[in-house]
Amino acid sequence: MNVKTVLKFVRNTVIALALLAVGGWVAFVPSAKEPPYQFVTAWGGKGDAPGQFNDPTGIAVARAEVFVSDSRNGRIQVFDTDGHFKRQFGAPGTEPGKLGRPMNLTIHGNELYVAEYFNDRVQVFGLDGTSKRTMGKSGSGPGEFNAPGGIAVAPNGDLFIADFYNHRIQHLKADGSFIRQWGTTGKIGIWAGQFNYPTDVALGADGTLYAADGYNDRIQVFGPDGAFRRKWGGPFAMNIFGPFNGWFATVTRVALDQSGNVFVADFYNHRIQKFTADGEFLTSFGAKGRGPGQLDHAIAVAAADDGTVFVADFGNNRIQKWRPGK
């Protein structure tokens, strides 16, 4: 083989690899369809005084109020949508009304559902902070939990719970009795319907279930009948993490807006990503830092009825408010 032939071979190989790289980028890194959200304001700071946080881990919005899991302080704090403190409830402990590292929050009707990571239970409060009931206990059996991370509530009161260390999603009746589960108890998996430390769940208006498959760096979607529908996050959504559009580096929260769009807290990428209900990437916002509009481990997100989005900025011990870009 002469030098000219070798050079031609090298050139063609380089071209082929470049085309493969471009094709892979187009296939696996989608372009934004919407402008990024715009930062509005932030509040908080580390401490235990009203309006301060020690590891905020969950957030929910209802009736112009923002509810925040202040996990290490063992309490829920409530603010208006501009960040003004209104009230708080809870204290560290295991008794009814007390909390053991509250995680993701869900509001259904006039009640706040709190996943308690340390207490291995779900506790339900009135929006005024009155403890109403608890369900679950430590374990791996039906209706038992090992560090629950998030809850979704169906219109009929059925519960869907991300059971973190048990690597499963449980479907329970409103009274806590077991219906079914997704995932194999105690077993990590990367295939469809399997989980690697699931962190949260959300329900669409049609009963579609969205599961934040935390350490698999993806979202999994199941139909109202429980059948697997789709997954997204990185190439083939098979535990390949990265900083690109549509990829994740540990998902810690999944939330829907009034239009059914899906917001995902992308923890180690320090950002929020937004998708259509079918998983089409729309936009993202946030970047690592301590300044306005920067995030240090975005752990939770919630969308208000007017389109405003609130983010629990874990490492900065604060809450951020964002609005859609123009």
Q: Which SSEs are present, and which pair or pack?
A:
Layout lengths: L2 H26 L9 E7 L11 E7 L2 E6 L4 E6 L4 E5 L12 E7 L2 E6 L4 E6 L4 E5 L12 E6 L5 E5 L4 E5 L5 E5 L17 E4 L5 E5 L4 E5 L5 E5 L18 E6 L5 E5 L4 E5 L5 E5 L12 E6 L5 E5 L4 E6 L3
Antiparallel strand pairs: 1-24, 2-3, 3-4, 4-5, 6-7, 7-8, 8-9, 10-11, 11-12, 12-13, 14-15, 15-16, 16-17, 18-19, 19-20, 20-21, 22-23, 23-24
- Compressed to H and E, one letter per element, the order equals HEEEEEEEEEEEEEEEEEEEEEEEE
Radius of gyration: 21 Å
Distance between the termini: 59 Å
Number of strand elements? 24
Largest sheet geometry: 4 strands, antiparallel
Q: Tell me, briefly, the overall form.
A: globular
| Structural class determined from secondary elements | mainly beta
Strand order of the largest sheet: 1-24-23-22
Spans of 5+ residues with little confidence (pLDDT < 50)?
A: 12-23
Counted by DSSP, the helix tally is 1
Oligomer: single chain
**What portion of the residues fall into strands of 2 or more residues?**
35-45%
- How would you state the average pLDDT, rounded? 93
Specify the helix fraction band.
under 10%
Structure explained in plain terms:
It is a single chain. The protein is mainly β and 326 residues long. Helices cover 8% and strands 41% of the residues. The chain is built from one helix and 24 strands. The strands form six sheets. Strands 1-24-23-22 form a four-stranded antiparallel sheet, with no helix packed on it. The chain has a four-stranded antiparallel sheet with strand order 2-3-4-5, with no helix packed on it. The protein has a four-stranded antiparallel sheet with strand order 6-7-8-9, with no helix packed on it. The longest helix is centred in the N-terminal third of the chain and has 26 residues. The protein is globular, with a radius of gyration of 21 Å. About 4% of the residues have low confidence.
